[in-house]
Amino acid sequence: MSGLEIAAGVIGITDFGLRGIKGLYDFFQDLQDARENLPQIWHELSCIQSNVVSLKFLSEADEDTLKEVRATGITQGMNDCGSACDKLNRQLIRWTERGVDSFTGKLNFKLHSAQIEKNRVRLWATARMLDMTVGILTLYDNFFIIKRYANYLGRKLVHKSEAERAAEISALTQAMDCWKRQAGQERERVSLSLQGLEDSEDSGVIDELDEEESVLKTFIDRSGQTAEQLQAVKLNQTFKGINSDDSEVKLGMPASVVDKVARQSITDVTSKNKSKVTVGIW
After folding, report:
1. Are 243 and 186 part of one and the same domain?
2. Alpha-carbon distance 23 to 172, whole Å?
3. 169 and 264 inside one domain
4. Are residues 89 and 65 in the same domain?
5. What's the whole-model pTM score?
6. Pick from 53, 59, 29, 51: which is nearest to 41 by CA?
7. What domain count does the chain have?
8. Residue of higher predicted confidence among 181 and 71
């Protein structure tokens, strides 16, 4: 097993899940026609593959961090997505055996449009769960910051101030709220589609829509739980022994993150030679 598979296994993500996603990514990587015909599938796969390197750092996480990561639903999300990707990969190979742009290839895409859309939604939800995971991993001083959309080149230990962490929590919470609203809109679309179908119509399409709705419901529930955990985080902020000499210094926090800080202490601050010091909340 690779280092990534071992680290991901800390929270129960299987090597089959990781390989299923990678296999479908490789299929699209090798076929430009597939990327052009199914651009949304390719986009979400690319997002997942760009961020999946972050899972290497799960092996260094403490229990509190792992608890928050699990709350995102990333374990089940990655495992289910891997199984779905493996199945879709095999189907795409069969559907496009005469070429993606062939008559039969295009016909198969049309005939199986509901299944393709269901997989797009699953990939989108998994990509956003992974975004949540990366966001949580980067909140903590003892974590190595991962540069998104870049190859893993090495580790850089970053010690963050409480104000920086509070700002990141606020930004992540806002992003999650946006994703939750988007999932709600998608779910409403699926619900309307189901209402427009009669029981006598294609049961396969109904099954695909039911599964799509279930994926969206799970994502909405999980993102809500994760947001509640982040909102409960309260940080302590301490500044002591600060000397300012002919410089401009801000000590404290911006007003936008006040709700994330439980206590603020600023003592022993010295300024001279026309220094400008802002203390408290700005």
Report:
1. no
2. 30
3. no
4. yes
5. 0.76
6. 29
7. 2
8. 181
53 and 118 share one domain: yes
Fill in the amino acid letter for 46: S
Q: Distance (Å, rounded) from C-alpha 52 to C-alpha 48?
A: 6
Same domain, residue pair 163 and 274: no
Q: Report H helices in the chain.
A: 3-8, 15-30, 32-37, 39-51, 63-71, 74-95, 103-111, 113-137, 162-195, 203-232
Tokens of 28: 């699209």
Judge if 125 and 254 occupy the same domain: no
Tell me how far apart the 2 most distant CA atoms of the chain are, in Å: 83
Token readout for 20 is 């299923």
Within this chain, do residues 79 and 219 fall inside the same structural domain, yes or no?
yes
E strand or H helix that includes residue 268:
strand 261-272
Residue (of 160, 182, 142) closest to 260 by Cα position: 160
CA 278 to CA 257: how far, in whole Å? 16
Average pLDDT, the chain: 81
* The amino acid at 75: T
Render pLDDT for 73-108 as a digit per residue (tens, 0 to 9): 899 999 999 999 999 999 999 999 888 888 888 898
Q: Domain range for residue 110?
A: 3-232
Mean pLDDT is highest, among 51-55, 57-61, 161-165, for 51-55
